[in-house]
Design goal:
It contains six helices and 23 strands. The relative contact order is 0.08.
């Protein structure tokens, strides 16, 4: 066999071997493909057949989450229930700023304790209950006034300033905010109820948006202070105020009040319960009694921080709105008045008069 024949034979052998290997590889790939198809077509335990999967995917559309409407408590109020006799009974207490699910349903019922017929709104608070209409507004979200002497408007226009009745909202007033009814970016609609005042509730008035906060922490801060104001137990009151302070220090709007609260916790209580009227321009007064005490809080239980004598003058920046009567020796008239907040401390108004040199 010559060299050419040997070369041809060797090449033929190599090609034959390669062909056999390719044939084996093709058979192997075919078998693997069959096994893959069989494993995919075989349902796994607990899985739905193909037609059921399609039925699920092409069935009824998924339920969309419904918007929950809230009612906002404008003041402390009872959560009530209607009983078999058709009268309404107190069940539990709600605080100003609390929210419940708002249904919008309104009915008149007789209260069980005085049989007076009053209007109530039905709400949901882990069950169906009723809240008297004066204490709730909705559908709305809670908010809190963050600026002193926030002016009210009858319409979202700068010329529509309220001129009679309640014309301003004090700082720390908890309100119901109607965010969807905001035709102008500068204003937002609110409702509120001021305590310790004979004026009617503030119903659907407008304020400037920069004077309101809807931050949950700001609302919690003021709610705690209001609850503290109505708490007689000193330990519980102190704990509530400390919690309020902790939140206030982290607030965008209330962090600056922390030093005042630490020195005079009662100041925050008074402001939070709308029992303090701040005077934007202040007012001058003169002492009419022989001597008068200056106290660190607006109460006879406060520490005496100093004294003023007859003829001394002072300037006040705020006063309490609720008139009080102080005790007096037998046979003497009991002094009546309010407390003035001066730079030196708190002074009782019954022993003072407007300074004739200034217009109070």
């Amino acid at each position: 066999m010559n060299e050419a024949q040997q070369t041809a034979g060797s090449l033929q052998g190599r090609l034959k071997g390669r062909f056999i290997n390719m044939k084996q590889r093709t058979v192997f790939l075919f078998l693997m493909a069959v096994l893959t198809i069989l494993s995919c077509s075989k349902p796994t335990p607990g899985s739905a057949p193909e037609d059921e999967t399609l039925q699920t995917e092409t069935g009824a559309p998924e339920e969309t989450e419904q918007t929950v409407l809230h009612g906002v408590l404008l003041t402390e109020a009872g959560l009530c229930e209607v009983r078999a006799d058709g009268k309404i009974y107190w069940k539990s207490q709600l605080n100003a700023g609390d929210t419940v699910i708002w249904t919008g349903e309104q009915q008149e019922y007789h209260r069980n304790y005085d049989n007076a017929k009053r209007s109530f709104y039905r709400v949901n608070a882990d069950g169906d209950y009723w809240v008297q209409d004066y204490a709730i507004a909705g559908p709305a979200e809670p908010g809190v006034v963050v600026a002193s002497g926030t002016v009210l408007y009858t319409k979202p226009e700068i010329t529509a300033v309220v001129r009679t009745g309640n014309i301003t909202l004090p700082r720390y007033t908890l309100v119901a905010v109607f965010p969807d009814d905001n035709p102008a970016d500068e204003f937002i609609k609110v409702s509120a109820r001021l305590e310790n005042t004979s004026n009617p509730p503030v119903s659907e008035r407008y304020i400037k948006v920069q004077n309101i906060s809807t931050d949950p922490n700001d609302i919690r801060c003021v709610k705690l202070a209001r609850i503290a104001a109505g708490t007689e137990n000193p330990l519980a009151k102190g704990e509530l105020l400390r919690n309020a302070l902790d939140i206030a220090r982290q607030s965008r709007y209330f962090s600056q009040i922390s030093p005042d609260i630490e020195a005079e916790p009662v100041l925050f209580e008074l402001e939070a319960t709308n029992n303090l009227e701040r005077l934007a321009n202040g007012a001058g007064y003169i002492v009419t009694a022989d001597t008068i005490n200056i106290r660190d809080i607006p109460s006879l239980s406060g520490n005496v921080a100093g004294t003023l004598r007859q003829g001394d003058t002072f300037w006040i920046t705020a006063k309490t709105t609720r008139e009080v009567t102080l005790p007096a020796p037998e046979g003497e008239d009991k002094p009546q008045g309010v407390w003035y907040r001066a730079e030196q401390g708190w002074i009782f108004s019954a022993y003072t008069a407007p300074n004739p040199m200034y217009t109070p």
